[in-house]
Structures
1.
Amino acid sequence: MQAEASLTAKGAAKHRAVHQLLEGGRILSDPLAVAMLGEDPDAIVREAEEDPDRRTMRLFIAARSRFAEDRLADAVGRDVRQLVLLGAGLDTFGLRNPHRDKGLSVYEVDHPATQAWKRERIAAAAPAGLPALNFVAVDFEKQSFLDELAKAGFDRHAASFFIWLGVTPYLTREAIVATLAAIARVAAEVVFDYGEPLEAFSGARRAAMEAFQARVAALGEPLISRFWPAEMARLLRETGFARFDDFGPHEMAVYLGAPAPPPAGTPGGHVVHARSGG
Ligand SMILES: C[S@@+](CC[C@H](N)C(=O)[O-])C[C@H]1O[C@@H](n2cnc3c(N)ncnc32)[C@H](O)[C@@H]1O
């Protein structure tokens, strides 16, 4: 198991914080993002402005959360009352939970070291009146998260929603398949993201992807899984998801109402919304 808190979780949290400061949370409004990160706002803005290439990743990270939170709101409208954040990192959704009055329970699954660090950050960022989050420590490569969730009170016979963002690139294919199959076994839907193989990119975009890949490998969290969209569609059908939508850069830009969406088929990060029959 990972001995240290995830540095890529910190990276994603920094992108969400900078998105509030530089873009006013235009895609994802997250009033707790800056406090949860706990870094000097001026310094993180300066750092982001010195490296404009980070903007694409920042907007993708904001978009995937916004999309997931929108799909969750639909599911709550269909009486779903359990949310599981798989590989939650410093995601603040559980603290913001706008569906608390409707009884939405939030379970956060992550490595123990990252969860311990998150508890410290929560205590520092929002010391009073913290909402109850159910923390479940799991290594996706080694354990069945459904068993661990059940111990924390998760009802596998009741409808549930899983948000699994920024995690698949760091897992083996076996762990990804096992996780999807486990979600499909319960009456669940899931929003997750994945990246396309490096060969899908060219020019400056390819160079930026390679630089990012080298950066996170140096942090000890190498990117090991990437998928072509057709391969992901096959994998979803094989693991038990009859219905799914895959939003690439074009579809996501249209979804967000961007004035000039990139052409259909443009490579980049993909966000999938999939539903199993239970
Ligand atoms: C890039 S962070 C994303 C965090 C969060 N979902 C977000 O969007 O900010 C990756 C997360 O996956 C978790 N993770 C990676 N491999 C894992 C594993 N084998 N078992 C459990 N969690 C894992 C890390 O602890 C970290 O929280």
Note: DSSP finds eleven helices and seven strands in the chain.
2.
Amino acid sequence: MKYRTMGKLGVQTSAFGLGCMRFNGKAFGDTIIDEQKAISLIRQAIDGGVTYLDTAYVYLDKTSEIVVGKALQDGYRDKVTIATKMPLGYVKDRASMEALLEEELKKLQTDHIDFYLMHGLDKNEWEAFKAIGAPAFFDDMKREGKIRFKCFSFHGPYEDFAYILNDYDWDMVQIQYNFMDIDHQAGRKGLQLAGEKGIPVVIMEGLLGGRLSSAPENVQALYDAFPVHRTPVEWAFRWLCNHPEVAVVLSGCNEPEQIEENLRIFDTVEAGVMDDAELKLMEDVRRAYLDRTKIGCTGCKYCMPCPNGVNIPGIFSVWNNVSLYCTDPANDWGLKRIKENGNGADQCVGCKRCEEACPQHLPIIEQLQCAWKDLC
Ligand SMILES: NC(=O)c1ccc[n+]([C@@H]2O[C@H](COP(=O)([O-])OP(=O)(O)OC[C@H]3O[C@@H](n4cnc5c(N)ncnc54)[C@H](OP(=O)(O)O)[C@@H]3O)[C@@H](O)[C@H]2O)c1
């Protein structure tokens, strides 16, 4: 296992951090399927050198912290740092922040949390949380030793990320990043900004939730043609760890074989090891994925709101993702939600309001029907 120093904190950590959001559940709202197996996966990772675990109040229908707490008995707690998160939707005031933290400490069976994150913070929430005293709460909890580091995780646009990052004395940030997301969410600019400030960055969705763990034919052909052969998972993690700003790469594993493979990969990855040929390969791989794009919708939402409630950017985003990553639309939670809420393309009456507003001049009405036919 390679270890890294976390920016200005000076804390040593394993480059591979175990994400505790999955364990055979596919999303954070799924309940845990096999507690013993999850405990065994956590201990396998720690025995293999992992020193960083990431969980959250809401993961696995609120059971992830409990399972992590159980796995960390028998001397395992002292071998790791724990990151967990304040569930923002449950917070009303200072008293509820205190109550939630106490509950999390109890579930995790520990007297302190190493990295305490505001979970999926956005700019509006940050303003609202400042107004109810979140910064003072974090400072007080740090002083009392209940948390060691004040952090946030983030999925919004770069501008909001920069605003929040510059607005408080954060110790660490967690962002979604992978070779497909360099211009998405906080993106490369966000990573570099944190790096310039000496704030360590923890990466989530390094494999895009598993979508980058196998490659479609046109991408695999590029990997195969390269003189050095590595799995898609290894290329993805190698590319991430090549960035000096990256402190930890999280990955949520479901099987012992995945942990084993990731332990092997994180034995070799280091910042700055990729040469020009490797970096060009990853750029070519990225383009090959993007060649699979169905429609050039940028998600600007100028077409919204649709008078008939069609979620136009949502449908196009699912359509593109299914094509890019060869996923099954039946398992796509975004599509599921669109259907449940009656926001499907079957509601389109062809009024053309969307086409008049689209800055890309996309033939939205015709393409919506193509997308719906492919997805349903
Ligand atoms: N704060 C937030 O808002 C937020 C949001 C998302 C995630 N997170 C955290 O970040 C962690 C990491 O995100 P993530 O779980 O999405 O990470 P990820 O690494 O992008 O995806 C994990 C998935 O990749 C596949 N995988 C992992 N290792 C593999 C291997 N060696 N070979 C083949 N497939 C492999 C598995 O999927 P299959 O078994 O299905 O193939 C696994 O479930 C989460 O666990 C969670 O703790 C936080």
Note: The chain has two domains: 3-284, 312-375.
